[in-house]
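Changelog entry

Holo records now carry the ligand SMILES as an explicit input line rather than a separate metadata file. Below, a converted record for zinc ion, shown in the new format.
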Amino acid sequence: MITYKTFILLPGLETNTYLFWDGITKQAAIIDPALPSQELSDFITDQGLAINYIINTHGHADHIGGNSFFHNQFNAPVCIHADDAEMLISSKLNLSAYLEYEMMPTKADLLLDENSELLLGNERIKIIHTPGHTKGGICLLIDNLLFSGDTLFYLDIGRTDLPGGNYEALLSSIRKKLIILPDDTVVLPGHGPASTIGIEKLNNPYL
Ligand SMILES: [Zn+2]
Ligand SMILES: [Zn+2]
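Structure line, unchanged by the conversion:
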């Protein structure tokens, strides 16, 4: 069974960093570490978790700022869609230059694509490529949890005015790949509160 916990490491941008793990094998993954965090690191150690992956839903600074810290601490591979991999090492592409955000760049260890599946204990993490917010944006599906990055928010969708953004592509990604999931799928976005596919299908003004 998968358990998850949300951490907000970056006040201001309020990026949701998620830690999730398989309760039986204690294998775990970190999604979108916004910043280095001793609190998160201590939690992982206290729970006796083994970090198998650090996964970025996309390459913006507020989702990758802790990659280097957690990579060094737990020796886990940094995973991102191939189309966003370059953003990890370019302060211009990942916008850290604009945000005046001090960041230690780390390159990708594992490039993901639409057909990737990552094993976590007895569970599988399915990668869903959802371009639109960025070219290599992904959502992750495990169990009935959908980690939706900056693609789908509670009653909102990701912005498409940043480099690599495309409004039509974003809507198409959400309609073709996310809204088709079961209504009780829990949506865990990159910012703001959680939702479900059922709630978004009925109430999201963009859909
Ligand atoms: Zn973003
Ligand atoms: Zn974001």
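Spot-checked after migration. The domain at 2-203 is CATH 3.60.15.10 (Metallo-beta-lactamase; Chain A). Residues 148 and 167 are 16 Å apart (CA to CA).
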